[in-house]
């Protein structure tokens, strides 16, 4: 959610055709994203404070662990937006903010490397995945590295009067962007192999296919942006005695050609991902999941990449194409945000055995709440089969069954009612999905 909102703010900042109010709209998304980030951070902190075991469970869960880097990516998008909207607005008094963003850029680079490497190490040490389970979400731990390039391009543009600092940021941005993209490229191979051997993912997982668009998109906007700034900040002896100016111009040209190469790749993955949704739209078999935000965030990268290519080639047609992408993305963001609120209201997400909170891949909850649910289900099964089993009321004060006349059986856990039918449906859905895989 926060990544997508920050991505929309980034896209609006890059729109070449400006009109009164566009900057204000971008600022709204930027500030709203900060509010969402603070809200999410507060809620997740309260969760870990009141239920400490969930912190370890989040690291070991086969699905949730892949999304841990989302917190770092959200920080990266906020820093990018600050460099865009904050540095533009602060004018002559921006020196302190510019110096602060220069330091925070390198701090973020360190966090991105630590988290991307750390999450992969945890996954490789605790999880066993098969090719049939492969989705582009496996790329997600690389994403903190992928937003470094666009941030470096934006920040270096504001640091042109400090040429040495700008040059350091461009070189660092190129290195870290290369790490993220090359890691993503290797995972691309696994994704293509999975598609060739296992067909398309399940309908509920197909929005995640758009994650494959992001690595190329962010790399294009980062590389082309840094290439445009490089000739203005290099010294005369950069890359060799007396060839600094030539090296800067050659690097600028090379970045555009490399960007065009990747732009084609990003467009290809976009078309494949969009085409994979035809059967879902036709049969109306998709239900909301948080992966729906994959319709927004990776495609904001494609849109900003389109604007970067349009600027480099001075192409009006490509600019218009990017503007069309922008309009579509804003409407998609609005639709997904409304659907998310509706899903929370109807307990389709943030609910036991729903979406990312379900048990899967051999991972089991170890909390008292999960144990109480299992005990009550076992008692009900025994009673339905006519077997004398454990009395549900003997499960203790922590978990007590609550069944009224004509009501759906529920389990009361620490004062909270858990719909058992919802739990059963969640397990049935999981088993059906596993059989499809």
Automatic annotation (TrEMBL):
Topology with respect to the bilayer: Multi-pass membrane protein
Bias (Polar residues) ranges: 390-400
Keyword terms, alphabetized: Membrane, Transmembrane, Transmembrane helix
Bilayer-crossing regions: 22-46, 66-83, 103-123, 135-153, 165-188, 209-230, 260-280, 292-310, 316-341
GO MF annotation, one: malate transmembrane transporter activity
UniProt-listed CDD domains: TDT_Mae1_like (cd09317)
Compartment annotation: Membrane
Residues covered by region (Disordered): 383-413, 418-437
GO cellular component terms, semicolon-separated: membrane
Chief location of this protein within or outside the cell: membrane
Pfam families: SLAC1
Basic and acidic residues composition bias: residue spans: 422-437
PANTHER family (UniProt xref): MALIC ACID TRANSPORT PROTEIN-RELATED, TRANSPORTER_MALIC ACID TRANSPORT PROTEIN, PUTATIVE-RELATED
Protein known as: C4-dicarboxylate transporter/malic acid transport protein
Organism for this UniProt entry: Pseudocercospora fijiensis (strain CIRAD86)
